[in-house]
Amino acid sequence: MCRVRNINDDDTLESAKAFSPDLILVFGTSLLKKRWFELQTPILNSHLGIIPRYRGWLCWFWSVLEENFDSLGISIHHVSKIADGGDIVIQDFLDIFELEKIDLPHILFSVILLVEKNISKAIDMVSKEEKDIHAFDEYRHMKKYPHYFEPGITDYLRFVSLTKRLNKQIK
Questions:
Q1: What DSSP string describes 104-153?
Q2: What pLDDT does 29 receive?
Q3: Using alpha carbons only, how large is the chain's radius of gyration in Å?
Q4: Are 111 and 104 contacting, i.e. CB atoms less than 8 angstroms apart?
Q5: Residue 132: predicted pLDDT
Q6: pLDDT, the chain, mean
Q7: In Å, how far are 129, 142, 155 from 121, measured between CA atoms?
Q8: What are the backbone angles phi and psi of residue 121, rounded to the nearest 5°?
Q9: What distance in Å separates the CA atoms of residue 12 and residue 6, rounded to the nearest whole number?
Q10: Is the distance from CB of 145 to CB of 67 less than 8 angstroms?
Q11: Whole-prediction pTM value?
């Protein structure tokens, strides 16, 4: 495993080339530049959201805030030039009402546990595929879904209010 400051700097790419991995796994990174795909190595992203509906940053947060609880979960997918647009390998869902408590830390921790639960299976599935790299696949319908960014303070306040209401309902 290798941690880097900037996934797209020259040193990082050169290190990856020298290592010659069979698979690259990214989690919480920015978009990869085109030269990553020249490695001809499958690249998987562990995304904390259900794509294509929830793409971008903090997607588990937005599905809760929008009260779209059926879309709370994770997607492990091939990386493409479009944010969270590559072929999906695995998706898994979280039942928010099975949590001990509904709040930001419990939800985030539970979503990350879904990645842990599914990552080995996703890696096995990809390693059994033929060398068909899905680097530039695109969803035709991606434009109809927004790309989510960092929530503002009012979004956080709405989230806290919603989770307080939900916790009262499940007691």
A1: HHHHHHHHHHHHHHHHHHHHHHHHHS-S---TT---TTGGGS-EE----H
A2: 81
A3: 17
A4: no
A5: 41
A6: 84
A7: 13, 26, 34
A8: -65, -40
A9: 7
A10: no
A11: 0.81
CB 51 within 8 A of CB 77: yes
Instruction: Write the CA distances from 66 to 54, 70, 144, 155, 157, integer angstroms.
Output: 11, 11, 16, 10, 13
105 token code pair = 């830390």
Q: Is residue 95's pLDDT more than 90?
A: yes
Task: Yes or no: say if 59 and 47 are a contact pair by the CB < 8 Å rule.
Answer: yes
C-alpha 88/C-alpha 78 separation (Å) is 6
Structure tokens, 112: 């990350």
DSSP H or E segment with residue 92: strand 88-93
Q: Over 7-68, what HEC string results?
A: CCCHHHHHHHHHHCCCCEEEECCCCCCHHHHHHCCCEEEEECCCCCCCEECCHHHHHHHCCC
Q: How far apart are CA 71 and CA 60, in angstroms?
A: 8
The CATH number that domain 10-170 falls under is 3.40.50.12230
What would the mean pLDDT of 12-29 be, rounded to a whole number?
Answer: 86
Q: Is the predicted pLDDT of residue 138 greater than 60, yes or no?
A: no
